[in-house]
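chain below, 360 aa
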Amino acid sequence: MSGGVDSSTVAAMLCQQGYDVVGLTLQLWNQRRLAGREGMPESVQGRCCSIDDVYDARRVAETLGIPYYVVNQEQRFEEQVVRPFVAEYLRGRTPIPCSLCNNHLKFDQLLVTARQIGAELLATGHYARNEYDERSGRWLLKRPADRSKDQTYFLFGLTQDQLSRTLFPLGEMNKPDVREEAKRTGLRVFEKPDSQEICFIPGGDYKRFLDAYLDEQGEGLPDTSGELVTTTGEVIGTHSGIHNFTVGQRKGLGVAKGLPLYVLEIRGDDRQVVVGGGDELYSSSLRARDVNWVAIDELRAPMLVHAKIRHRHEPAEAMLEKSGEDEVLATFTEPQRAITPGQAVVFYDADVVVGGGWIV
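prediction:
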C-alpha cells in the first residue's frame, strides 16, 4: 500500500471479494534526510513513499478494518537502488531506479514478508496483467487494458515465482474507473494525484541530488570534466562533468555551431561527450545485458519482437538475437531516436512481455 488511490482501491476490492487482507507499506527513504543541503528543499510533498503516503495508507487500512504494517527497507534501498543510481550516473549512464526497486525490493522483499506473516499472495496497484499459460508452462506478464497507465516496462525483472504469487487487480480497469471505485468505497484518497517523481529526487533534479548525496557521504563530486567532441573526433569545447548530460539532450551544451547540437553518446572512460545533429541521434540497433526472460526460458533462435526503450516510447519492431554470453542484439526495422545506455529495454510479443534487460 503506497498511500495512493491505486493500491488503496486494490485493498478495498480484495476485501469485498472475501480475501483476508493485510496492508504493507515499504519505508524506503527518509524524505528529510538531505533537507536543507544546497539545492535541496526543506520539505517535500507529493512524492512516492513519503511520510504523508504512509499516513494515507494507514488511514485507508483503518477505514477498511485490516491490519497494517510498515516494513523498513531503507538500508537495502540505499544499497541496491540509490548507490547504483549514483554510480551509473557518474559513469555517464542514465539509470532507471524504479525497475531496480521493483526487482530487488517491492516484489522480492514484500514476498519474503508475505511468507513470514502467512500470506499466500501479494497484490499491488500496478497496471499490468499476469496469467498462467498452459501451453508453455510459464507465467506471462501482459500489458493492461489501460495502455496510458501501462507499467509493464518497470516490471520486466519479475521471476516466474514472483509472478505466480502476485495479483494485479487493476489490469482490466481504466484509471477513471479506479477513482470512481475508490470514491464509491469511501476512500478519501480517491482524488489524490498520481506521484510523478523518483521518490528520492525532489523536483527531478538529478544533478542537485548527486551533489547533496555525495556531500552527505563525505565523498565529494568526482572530477568527470572533459571534452565535447564530434563523431569525427573534432574537439569543439569542454564540459564540467559527464553527469551533467544524457543522450538526446540539446540545452546546456555551451557551444554554438550554427545548427542545433544534441548529445549523441557519453564516453565515461574517456570523459568525452559526443555531440552532433539531430539526424545522428537515430540508431538501428542496441545491445542489452542481464536479460530476464518472462514468456520464454531462453532465446534459442532469432525472434521478431517490439522493443520499448523508455517508459513513454511506443514499442518498435525489432529482430532479437543472441550476441554473446547473457547479451542480446535488437535490430530495429526503423531507426530509433536517443537509445540510452543505462535505461531498460523491454521486448513484447503483442501484449505479452517476452523479457527485458539493460541497454549497454
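The mean pLDDT is 91. The first helix runs from residue 5 to 16.
thats it, cya
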